[in-house]
Amino acid sequence: MPLRESLPDELIENVADLLGLRAKTRSADLSAWAEHMLQTACQRIDGFIDPAASVEAMAQWERNGGGGDLRAQRLRGASRAKRFAGLQCESAMPAAQLFDDLIALGPVPSRPRVREVLETAEVVWLTREQVAGLPRGYRDWRAFSKTLQLSPKP
């Protein structure tokens, strides 16, 4: 279930270039730097993704007095604002899994393959109770998503 129209072409190109640099350079320092930048890109990909929200999270948002659509909120991390009480925005695809999937493409992946992998990243607003039920580490998001009812987009 794609959650965005499309990721920027510049992002895809830069990630593909970092994959090539990581694999082709003879400098251990430069290779380590490229790997670190790839890991950072995987950790920060959520800034390019429109979050989804579970039906339960949308109901909690309304009970908290949150105005507007919860899916328009880009909050990452904890907030003391009452309207976010009991809610958490979670990456459905762990950054480590996204990184491993990119590395598995090989040293010179095509831009469409890089886009395909990056577009597996998903972010979703959940209640704290739903988050507590998520396994840690590499999550089986597809199995979990079958138990989750997402709020339809307006």
Short key terms for the protein model shown above:
154 residues; mainly alpha; three-stranded mixed sheet; 7 helices; 3 strands
SSE topology:
Blueprint: H1 9-24, H2 28-44, E1 52-53, H3 55-63, E2 87-91, H4 95-103, H5 111-118, E3 123-127, H6 128-132, H7 141-145
Parallel strand pairs: 1-3
Antiparallel strand pairs: 2-3
Helix pairs in contact: 1-2, 1-5, 2-4
Description:
This protein has 154 residues and is mainly alpha-helical. The protein has one domain. The chain is built from seven helices and three strands, in the order ααβαβααβαα. A three-stranded mixed β-sheet has the order 1-3-2. Helix 1 packs antiparallel against helix 2, helix 1 crosses helix 5 (111-118) and helix 2 (28-44) packs across helix 4 (95-103). The longest helix is centred in the N-terminal third of the chain and has 17 residues, at 28-44. The two termini are 16 Å apart. The mean pLDDT is 85.
Low-confidence stretches: none
- In helices, the fraction of residues equals 40-55%
User: What is the makeup of the main sheet?
Assistant: 3 strands, mixed
Q: How confident is the prediction overall: mean pLDDT?
A: 85
Distance between the termini: 16 Å
